[in-house]
Amino acid sequence: MQRYSGFGLVKHALSHHENWQRQWRNPTPKKEYDVIIVGGGGHGLATAYYLAKEHGITNVAVIEKGWLGGGNTARNTTIVRSNYLWDEAAALYEHSMKLWEGLSQDLNYNVMFSQRGVLNLGHTLQDMRDIQRRVNANRLNGIDSQVLDAKGVQELVPIMDCSKGARYPVMGASWQPRAGVARHDAVAWGFARGADARGVDILQQTEVTGFKILDGRIVGVHTNRGDIGAKTVGCVAAGNSGVLAKMAGFNLPLESHPLQALVSEPLKPILDTVVMSNHVHGYISQSDKGDLVIGAGIDGYLGYGQRGSYSTVEHTLQAIVEMFPIFSRVRMNRQWGGIVDTCPDACPILSATPVKGLFFNCGWGTGGFKATPGSGHVFAASLAKGEMHPIAAPFSIDRFHTGALVDEHGAAGVAH
Amino acid sequence: MSQVNRLSQGGRIDRSRQLHFTFNGKPYVGYAGDTLASALLANGIDIVNRSFKYSRPRGIVAAGAEEPNAIVQLGSSEATQVPNVRATQQALYEGLTARSTNGWPNVQRDLMGMVGKLSGTFMPPGFYYKTFMAPASLWMTYEKYIRKSAGLGRSPTEPDPDSYDHINQHCDVLVIGAGPAGLAAAVTAARNGARVILCDEQEEMGGSLLDSRELIDDSPAVQWVDRVIDELAAMDNVTLLPRTTANGYHDHNFVTLHERCTEHLADSAPASGSRRQARSRMHRVRASQVVLATGAHERPLVYANNDVPGNLLAGAVSTYIRRYGVAPGQKLVLSATNDHAYRAALDWREAGREVVAIVDARANPQGDLVAKARTLGIPIITESAVIEAKGAERVSGARVAKIDATRFTVAGEVEELACDTIASSGGYSPVIHLSSHTGTRPTWRDDILGFVPGEVKGLTSVGGARGVYPLDDVIRDGIDGGRQATQAAGLDANAVTGLVPQVSAREDGAACALYQVPHLKPSMRAPKQFVDLQNDVTAAGIELATREGFESIEHVKRYTAMGFGTDQGKLGNINGMAIAARCLHRSIPEVGTTVFRPNYTPVTFGAIVGRHCRDLFDPERYTALHQWHVEQGAEFEDVGQWKRPWYFPRTVNGKKETLHEAVARECLAVRERVGILDASTLGKIDIQGADAREFLGRVYTNKWAKLAPGRVRYGLMCKDDGMLMDDGTTSCLGENHFLMTTTTGGAAGVMEWLELWHQTEWPELDVYFTSVTDHWATMTVTGPDARKLLAELTDIDLDKEQFKFMDWREGTVAGVPARVFRISFTGELAYEINVQANYAMHVWTALFKHGEKYDLTPYGTETMHVLRAEKGLIIVGQDTDGSVTPEDLGMQWAIGYDKPYSWIGKRALSRSDTRRTDRKQFVGLKPKDPKVVLEEGAQIVFDPNQSIPMSMVGHVTSSYYSPTLGHGFALAVVKGGHERMGETVYLPMVDGKVHEAEIVSPVFLDPKGERQNV
């Protein structure tokens, strides 16, 4: 792998940038792999990367029906935080957070992980009770998290309306300084490049059309480019997970919803932190390019179209302008949608399945981006060992039978 | 300063109306009818901005929505700043104030430009992914400077003084674009009786005809435009919307039209009479049929230094001359691939300026316009192109050479022509953005060298939008499309005859494909050849991206940022895709397009928000007694949308009580005498029908079969996962008639829940739900003196044997018909008086009049919380969080395990996890230190000496100081808590203190319930 550095950039400039290598190959599928990952988004590519890097399993293919990193990795609002309420979720997201810190160096690819902090605002007495509870839990779980009062919030975000005149005045917030945002596409590309360099075949424009199952055990996949054998298959296909599960002969408790986001035109720096409000219902940050990156909740109906309804955009911007009246004259450049696979308890599924050797990693709902490295890391360990990693274990499909849900709804509402 | 580039005549401007404006602090003059861009060009302003990445000087390129460079900051005051206005779309008005968005210290002499020149070569696409990684600790510092140099305009820092409107519209045919095709379609549909909306983004309707050379019915085309618009304007079934952009096309022909009502007048909406106008209005249109008549955008040619000011689109040159009377230079070189572009040279010549040469990429151009140019003696250099522009801050020459487009090489000697303006045209791209919003992929057509809209249900494309370019064809296509849409909308479309106007047919020669002009040097070494001017994306950048393995066009877009600008690649995308295709040895349709998304052009947040901000963001709900609470100086709490009195602070000795002082006083008043609560916000659902009782049995965990009229029962409602979702009392009003109460915040959710189950699962049940929350006001009179007080005002027999706890009675209170419920959320004797809401104030004041002698005390939600907590009564959402079962709460008494029909949540309660004995269970906590009031949300551990991460076993859900008990107390959930009574738990706090508490029963007061039963 060609190493990247400032020095390298200067060197390549002298040769007019004509000698840069491909960041990943465009290989022909082999007949068989040790592991096939279905889905070349951030989580799938991270899984392949850690399989190769941490477990020495390099005979791996990532099969992607479109272009790599083209699903929710390419469409999210890039918020990274780990201040989750429940121990199981906190462990997973904090594991991920620790990997984010140092990911650029590990991948030798600048994913621009920017720890500018995330505020989760409280607007009611109950919001503040929930914030106290979550911050106390975070603290005892070793996660940096603080309770701020309205004055503290105003100091961090002077441009926000923290006055009593707001419809739901800001009463305080939880504040995680280590949280932040990252450059979403670069995450997929960095993992792809790292995986490819270690021998992983990334097969783009390759669609899995079925599973080959013999005596209850996975032996490969059917694709539009022919059959490919595998001892182990991990499906990491977000909004299309339900479709894949059906191909494998079982159901998952998932609903696929449109989730929309939008950006303003690029502006000079005006907002330094990520601000999220469940109650007023919107969240916002400013990208390095200067766009205000804005989102809110899912569209209520189910769908596989990567777009949603206009009323959701209206409600989202109403919330943003309520929090930031000065943004009323800022202009919205673009909106788009992704398909999120949501679980009843707003937590993911990382699980073995009724088919031996077939594993699923899905159900991340609206908040999967932040988990990308952690999810890939524990899923890779699970695929390598054939049993779920301890951090992944609580997220088994079994929980929907036993009732051992990890219900983040109460604490997270807008779970990004 | 004089308008150096203003022609002495011509254009559609009003020379009698001078308008003064400033740009970068300097005063200028233009005319009514100018855009900011035409006025800047008229005044000889070459550099309007600095580019985003390399800080190169940039001038105006286009005349419409596709302009990438002329992005300015508008606004004469802080509150009325508008960032990123496209000067080509901004009408000039008196006093307009604009600034460049980049450039320091100014746009002429820009220091970053020096940096861009020096370091541009180190900044290929994606350079930031390859550096700034060491040392890791410095990234946030690097990023600070990256952020500073990014961005275009700036946000205002004061709130917007303007307001914005929404309007919902329906029509048979929505025509988007009022050029020749759109006008023809609209008038055809309108004459056939269709309800038509015709919108156009420009200041005036007419589209390409406003600067056309062509004749319609033997007179200038604009006269036809005027005739058609006059006809449409006179028709009742037509709505004309100029200055209105169709910015988003959503499913089922839902289109948002953004009408800019006042942006052409001032930077803040002026008053109309005594009222301020809305700055803009969003029309939310549901159209039976949509006609897309959006025309085409011209593609510039991609050659070296094609970004130096003085490089313009050929069509823009014509527009500025013919529409605005501005010739943006003296000496023109035109580089073209098609006949239509020749207009620019003809217009330039007719404006009295010199055309140095037309450089045509074709071997043998033939056509009427070519012939005309030849007749005028304009030199035409064939099989050639401008390969490089010379000049730094303004074009000073054009390097022209023979090219071989197929081999992508320069095929002859380079000649340098002195000129100050280079116009280029590489062909035309239909404006397909709106059709793409629906998710439909466009189709490539080799014959027109462009993408046309894919098939969308309910959409007809006409004219340039689908690659029909000759004017006579365009008008016919518009008429056909209008007729088709009318018929598709279910109307007869045969009424129109004799409409087709006469247009002299023009012979155009075939165009040739040229997306990047070859240079003597390979792309990577040639001077920069810009594809996307706004984001500084070059042909070399696209080539590098493909070399690095970015093969999908979406990857190319994301790696290079091509098309990510505020112009969404209107100018550069097709060229960029074609360059990528060439590098990848694929065809353009194989590479495909990226997906266009709303908005077509950017839209002010305010316009999307409309009136749903400030006071109307979310309605505040008040009870019928709200005014009384306000007058009493109550502090309010937001509960759902309601404003509820939180507490009623009194002023004692000139000092206002704190929350705790007020609550202590209010609590004692209830426990010792009598208090009153406005409980009107509790959700109330009237349930009727033969199966009402059966239905209750299925949605509540407990039994309802035997509840007699006149009786009340407390019920628990679970989700299907067995977790508590709401609680409340339900009263039997008659055999088939019940009144359900819900929590204040849960009312709407419960109503939806009941309807969901009735409509989807049990439609066979005969039951109806009506929300009556607002119909009734509820006043809770509670305390030892409650009966005495109420007795003074009611005809209901309050005898404790006649009117027992959990009974309800009908009668009058203070002369008003009332339902009185003997239920208690305080543990004291209590009556909940329900009266019709509009009588509430009368009853309330009567109660106070009679209550004076009992020291009747109003109390708020905080006191209510303390009183109920002393009794161990839960608040759903505070003591529960969606992970608590009725059993966890110790409320097995409210579960009808043996009900004949199953109920929601029953199955879930038998799952292995819900059967665990170490679930978190609801208990009381008594702090060891009586002065301590535990923090709500404090986490509980069994072992305070463990290291982090600690094993947490529960948390405090409610915690108060009890003036009755004289110590702090709390409610909590603790693992296996029901079996741990008397054990000690620990609460490690953020300040390092560890509190100790004893697990006790959650009922702290009157465990036998004697006080409420008196």
Write up this protein.
The complex is a heterodimer of chains A (416) and B (1014). In chain A, helix 3 crosses helix 10. In chain A, the strands form 3 sheets. In chain A, strands 1, 2, 8, 9, 10, 11, 17 and 18 form an 8-stranded mixed beta sheet that branches. Chain A has an 8-stranded mixed beta sheet with strand order 5-6-4-13-14-15-12-16. The C terminus of chain A is likely disordered. In chain A, a hairpin with a 5-residue loop joins strand 14 and strand 15. Chain A starts with 5 loop residues before the first helix and ends with a helix. Chain A is an alpha/beta fold. Chain A is built from 12 helices and 18 strands. By secondary structure, chain B is α+β, with helices and mostly antiparallel strands. Chain B is 21% helix and 28% strand. Chain B contains 23 helices and 54 strands. In chain B, the strands form 15 sheets. In chain B, strands 8, 9, 12, 13, 14, 17 and 30 form a 7-stranded mixed beta sheet that branches. In chain B, strands 45-46-47-44-38-48 form a 6-stranded mixed beta sheet. In chain B, strand 28 and strand 29 form a beta hairpin. Chain B is elongated. The mean pLDDT of chain B is 95. Chains A and B meet through helix 1, helix 5, helix 7, helix 9 and strand 16 of A and strand 6, helix 3, helix 11, helix 12 and strand 33 of B.
